Structures are given as structure tokens and as C-alpha cells.
């Protein structure tokens, strides 16, 4: 999923969800394609069908959302007048990214700002991991 599409989904969301968490994880961790002749490492086959999947709760936990922020980046969060406003990174070379939500959902605003920052900082067609 493209960064712009994921950001639009976050901005339109009314609450966090497993589907959004999965979309964020998949966006940040695209599948790795093995080089020709490179097999999977020993013991890393397909998981059992009942294995299930667990993605960080980015959209419902501020602790999980903070992992989207590059290490050492400063941020500002305000909920003045019930509006969630997030600005980050404050100490970067570029202009900070803003995300504002009238519903006051700080976590979704934080996720949105982090993904906007990653989209502007990453070269076209790639996603940047946490440093």
C-alpha cells in the first residue's frame, strides 16, 4: 500500500483497529524476495496454519505508536481545546510534519504524523525503518 493511501486511511479512521495496525506493519516491512538460489534459512518454513499473526497495536497504544518515530527525534503533542495536534520531528533538518484531529485521538494523529515524516524522508518507492 502506498504511503499516501495509508495516510488517508488513518486520517479517515474514527478509531484504531487491527486492520490499520496490519496495514502499517505491512507498509513498513515489505516482503523480502530471496535472491535466485537463496533458500529460506533452516527452520524458517511456513508457519502452521493456526499460528496467527500479531502486529504491534500502533493505532491503539501510544507506546507502540512511539516505535514509528526515528530514534532521537523530538515531537510535540497538544490536546488544547480537545483537538489532537502532533508535530514531528522538531529537531530535523526539514520542516516538521503535522497531523491534526478534531476528534482528539492523539494516537491516530501521532501515527499519521510519523507516516507523513517517513514518506517525505524516504526515497521514492521505499520505506525507512527506525534507526
Strand order, sheet with most strands: 1-2-3
Helix coverage percent: 25-40%
> What's the domain count?
1
* Poorly predicted ranges: 124-131
What's the N-to-C terminus distance? 22 Å
Average pLDDT level: 83
The rounded Rg comes to: 17 Å
Secondary-structure element sequence? HHHEEEH
Roughly what fraction of the amino acids lie in strands?
A: 5-15%
Structural class: alpha+beta
Helices, by number, come to: 4
SS elements, strand count = 3
| Coarse shape | globular
Looking at the chains present, what oligomeric state does this protein adopt?
single chain
Largest sheet: 3 strands, antiparallel
Question: Can you characterise this structure?
Answer:
The protein is an alpha+beta fold and 131 residues long. It has four helices and three strands. The chain has one domain (3-28, 55-121). The chain has a three-stranded antiparallel β-sheet with strand order 1-2-3, with helices on one face. The two termini are 22 Å apart.
Give a nutshell description of this structure.
The chain has 131 residues and is of the alpha+beta class. 32% of the residues lie in helices and 10% in strands. It has one domain (3-28, 55-121).
Write the layout of secondary structure elements.
Elements (H helix, E strand, L loop, with lengths): L2 H10 L5 H11 L33 H5 L9 E3 L5 E5 L8 E5 L4 H16 L10
Antiparallel strand pairs: 1-2, 2-3
Helix pairs in contact: 1-2, 1-4
